[in-house]
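Dear support,

We are seeing what looks like truncated structure output for some complexes. This example has two components. We would appreciate it if you could run it in full and send us the complete token output so we can diff it against ours.
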Amino acid sequence: MNLALIVILPFLGAVLPSLMIRVGRNASAIATASITLLTLALLLTHVPAVLRGEIPAISWQWLPALGLNVSFYLDGLGLLFAGLILGIGLLITIYARFYLAKKDPMGTFYSYLLLFQGAMVGIVLSDNILLLLIFWELTSLSSFLLIGYWRHLPEGRQGARMALVVTGGGGLALIAGMLLLGQAAGSYELQQILQQRELIQSSPLYLPALLLILIGCFTKSAQFPFHFWLPHAMAAPTPVSAYLHSATMVKAGVFLMARLWPVMSGTDAWFYLLVTTGLVTMVIGSFIALFKDDLKGLLAFSTVSHLGLMTLLLGLSTPMAAVAAVFHILNHATFKASLFMNAGIIDHETGTRDIKRLGGLLMLMPISATLAMVTAASMAGLAPFNGFLSKELMLEAAFHAEWAGNPWLIALLATFAALLSVAYSFRYIVHVFFGRRRDLDSHPHDPPAGMWLPPALLALLVVLIGLFPETMAGQLVRVAAGAVTGGQLPEFHLALWHGLTPALGLSLLATIGGLLLLANYARVRHWWQAGPHPEAKILFDGGQQLLITGCQRLVMGIHNGSLQRYIAALLAAALVLGVAAFFSSNYSSGQRPLLPAGPAMVVPWLLLIGCTLAAVVFHRQRFVSLMIIGVNGLIVSLGFVYLSAPDLALTQISVEVVTVILMLLALYFLPKQTPRAASILPRMRGVVLALGGGIGVGALSWAVMTRDFSTLSGYYLEQAKPGGGGNNVVNVILVDFRGFDTFGEIIVLGIAALAIVALLDGALRGRIHKSLENWQADEPTSADRHPLIMVVATRLMLPMALMVGAYIFLRGHNMPGGGFIAGLVVSIALIMQYMASGFGWAARQVKVDYHAMIGIGVLIAAATGIASMVLDHPFLTSKTEYVALPLIGKVGLASAMAFDTGVFLTVVGAVMLALAALSRMGHRLAHLPVNRRPMDINPRASNATPRQEKR
Amino acid sequence: MLTMELLVATTIGTLTTAAIYLLQRARTFPVILGLALLSYATNVFLFAMGRLTINAPPLISADASRYTDPLPQALVLTAIVISFGMTAVIVVMALRAWLESGNDHVDLESQPNIDEGDGE
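Here is the complete output from our reference environment:
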């Protein structure tokens, strides 16, 4: 359990610093440090077990169907990394407290830091590669926040963006690679994958998986040619650089390569990709570092070079090289974090990080100078510091490796890189702390202990590991390297003196060469200055700009903002797909016997075709086309009656009425005419697409209808009576078999009605309210405002209509009808009252809250469903009872009827709410007084100056 | 020979043709009418997936020897109601847009030539 806590605690704790900052900067820092310390303590409880060779693990299922589990394990490699992440994290927390200026929001900083820390620990402890990917992405995101922490600086923002683009892009490749790896191994559990070496390496997926994973690792670990983001990330505050570029972020790629070493290494592809990339990165990184004048830039490129060294070692695929890699990971973290903090101190004290403006600081800040000299000497690989030990191991491994049959190439390049690193390390020492003292505005001195103690602790480690490697780190390196190689390790002994080995010779050569190089720095620099200096940022920005402009051109070309164009494109695409599908298959005509059509159907058919064409021809006359389309609805209902679908006919005809009323209400406000099209071309395009689409859909319908088919409706027909308790199978399907669908439908309907109310009420209240105040109907209104005949007729019809509604509702389970249709019929009956006597009058008579009606309807439907769950049946199982009612006789009361009541109420509520909202709007804008009696005349229609009266 | 299948197929085709033409108009109201027509076409199309049958409504009775497929009917029934809901929302959206902007072009102000009529 506490294994998972190690990962979770930093995430949970991330809110604390932001809260504690209200108390003060110290409180915030202490909260952060406590979280980290607690997590570190939890980790340390596992140390004895892991050093003994045990592997604590814990696992929960998350999405087992995807193979995604929350599983963590702690082996030697995980322990090494988690220890570095948390240990250095703690030091960084202390350092940052003194480093950050008053105006920097410290709470936010620590929150980001803890998020990042949690994500890093998550990577190194994950036992599931999908989970690992999640943490991987989290590091990209949280490092983006950290690098861009000084958001007022453009370099900070650009550097953060570049880091996100490069590492995030690599992350995408990594996702694909990990998925392939999981496929090849048959599992996403890391420990299981690591057992499948033969299976994975013989899989055809091995090479693509390797390439994709390496893109992820190389981008994260700043390997050539992806190294350019790292120096630009130096725009971050120094604690961030010290953390991200020593122990954490950039080591994630190295970690993953080490993690997958047991199954991925040993092949030619692995060897040449890693060794070549590592060598090139090492040499280029150290070469550029030598000429960087910015202290942090120098360290950044040095980091690139050391990451190359680790990649090289992992690529060599021998267990001893793996030992060297692991050892160097530890050593590099200690000296590099310390050096970054040192660079931060110098920057803090002198106000500059430019080496050319620095010099002679030794006497001014002796503590910092001593620390820098120790750690930089370690970076150079000088005895007796820890950098020397791992460099020796590296040179030893390089000496015995050959590249494409060439036995000295690797050793030569490795030595050359070592030589350069001696030179730049000593440049850091000599050019900053010795030589002529420069004129600086400030008076530099050693910082408060809070700032120099963290790097001093690390420097102490540098010395101790260097002097007593076996005691300090032997066991840790053994278990970590054992985890990398999967168990088998050669006998080795970490020590300063191994006798006169070839590595020692190479090392001496590198040291002397490096010192000579630095001695002639001015000349070398002159020579370097003459050469070309490709600036990665310009290339990157240029490439990015090119992409952006290209995309913009592409997108704006297609997406110019014209909805008309989009719909044309959509229709054309659908048409092309349909035509392509048709011609890529072999069509044969259907064999189903067809129904002859009598004149009784031919006449309505002719009417419908004629009306449809007329609706198009007259579409600019909006009232006319609306009426014509109403005819279509009626004919479609007729067709449903004829073709054995009475329920559909009833629904269609009542919906038709409601829809036409709704559109008429809307048309009261909208323009009554559509202006003529400006040009012929869009119209022609419209005609072509319409004909193509229409003919296609018609032909498709024909093709389907002329074929036989099989249906699953046999079950519904058989079970309607025994299972659903009703004879009307359509209704039983709606309220019983597929009741859950219907439940969803009525909720959608209710939401639609509420959306309408929101849209219209917003118009009445919002900023357009003023202009609406002056709105006037653009058509003459009838003087007979609420005509007598209509009022009387609708009043007479109301009880009858309600009765019909009730009848349709009650019989719905056995005969055509049901909640939907009854709801529509009742709505129409009510709307007619509104139409006859006006909204104001009717609203005063009908005291029904339609909002509540929708809610009650949905609740009743839900309660019916839940009731069956209470009785241990699935949601919405129906139950039938026959009840003898007085006068009516025996009635089948299915629980489905309660559900249908819910449907009924929701439909009535939704329809009434929608139409009432529109009518209320009309009522409000007409500025007429509410009539006291159901019928009256329009007081304004006979008046020549209608604007004088006010309510 | 004129068959019901032919009548229904041509009906669906004609409705779709008219609907697609109206959908591409530049003003909101014709577009709404196009959507209404497209709803008819789609509903009839869905209904026709159960094939055409006469005198066999899906009402269980002792006299009936056969029934038409009830499933497409059930689906179309809810589809009709939902298309009403959709139409209502779109009508009101068009109305609100008209009230807000004083113009009922589908592209609103993004088109410079909005007052030049139906054209793109």
